[in-house]
Amino acid sequence: MLTGRQVAGANGHQWTGNVDPPARAQGGTLHAKGGAYMSSMFDVAHDHGLRTGVVCGKWKFVLLEQSYGEDAGGPDTVTPDDGRDKIDLFLCDPEPQSQLEHVVTLLERSAAERRRSLVFWHIPSPDFAGHAKGWDLTAGSAYREAVVKADRAIATFLQRCDADPALKGSVAVVLTADHGGGVPFISHVDPEAPVNFTIPFVVWLGKDGAAEDLYTLNPTSRSRPGPSERFMPGAAPPIRNADAGNTALGLLGLPAIPGSSANAAQDLAVRAPASN
Ligand SMILES: [Zn+2]
Predict the structure, then answer these.
(1) Taking CA atoms, which of 51, 57, 243, 251 is between 20 and 30 Å from 172?
(2) Residue 214 resides in a domain
(3) Range of the domain at 109
(4) Which pTM does this prediction carry?
(5) Distance 228 CA to ligand 1 centre (A)
(6) 269 C-alpha to center of ligand 1: Å?
(7) How far away, in angstroms, is 234 Cα from ligand 1 center?
(8) In angstroms, what is the span from residue 70 Cα to ligand 1's centroid?
């Protein structure tokens, strides 16, 4: 999602670890794992002068700070030189309501400086509940309550943006997930189960309007997967969460992530062509 690369394959970032990474000096960077510098959406945004942030609730995301923070990022090739620290704010806080305060604060501070910004916000609570009590869709289940809580935080975030004249109409959201869950019931490790790999991918452009289906907007470059399909050799790819980074950069008018393959042409259309 953040490098525009898939995990495996010649162009993959190769990072399969799902726990706290080793220290930076012990190989705990995406670059060490992949054998080359792995650019991210944070590189492109920061090099173009944007303020960047990571607000997450799982410490394993320190991998991002170890890969792109302080002096770990690559040189800035876009003048002026904004330095090698590609992540201005790295913050770990598992509570969705306080996470949204951190995100809003970053956006408001940037807007006050007439700077644009790019934030990766990861809400961990639905995953915590799923692993603890199962991906249980019955009303009132721990999982449903965690999703409600996450949904409420996002709703509050959108309301806060709308209530601030400096943000209203100027904030876009690309909302997706890393996985579903439920096969087995308290996990998501079966790669053939559609409930595990079917995820939302929603782009909100900061204005009210009729919702449009991204597959309808992208009839030739993406194929809508069937309910039981995972791989469709030869067909256009489905919309993947890996498309997120380059989609976000495209919305900001910024180029694609160097070395990326997912939505590298930034051709995922997110709005209908203007009719006039
Ligand atoms: Zn999980």
Answers:
(1) 57
(2) yes
(3) 24-251
(4) 0.95
(5) 21
(6) 30
(7) 30
(8) 29
CATH number of the CATH domain containing 28: 3.40.720
The helix, strand and coil proportions of the chain, stated in percent and rounded to the nearest 5, come to 35, 10, 60
The set of residues, in sequence order, having a beta carbon less than 8 Å from that of 178 and lying 6+ positions away, is: 1, 199, 241
Rounded to the nearest 5 degrees, what angle is found at the Cα of 229, between the Cα atoms of 227 and 232?
140
207: left (phi over 0), alpha (psi -120 to 50) or beta: beta
Stretch 240-259: mean pLDDT, rounded? 97
Q: How far is the CA of 31 from the centre of ligand 1 (A)?
A: 24
Residue 57 scores a pLDDT above 90? yes
In a domain, 15, yes or no: no
- Residues 268, 212: Cα–Cα separation, whole Å: 13
| pLDDT > 80? residue 72 | yes
Tell me, in angstroms, the distance from the centre of ligand 1 to residue 44's CA.
29
| Domain-embedded: residue 146 | yes
Residue 273 belongs to a domain = no
* Distance in Å, CA 131 to ligand 1 centroid: 6
- Determine the average pLDDT of the residues in 64-88: 97
* Dist. CA 57 → ligand 1 center (Å): 13
Residue-averaged pLDDT of the chain: 94
Give residue 276 CA to ligand 1 midpoint distance, Å: 46
Q: From ligand 1's centre to the CA of 12, what distance in Å?
A: 21
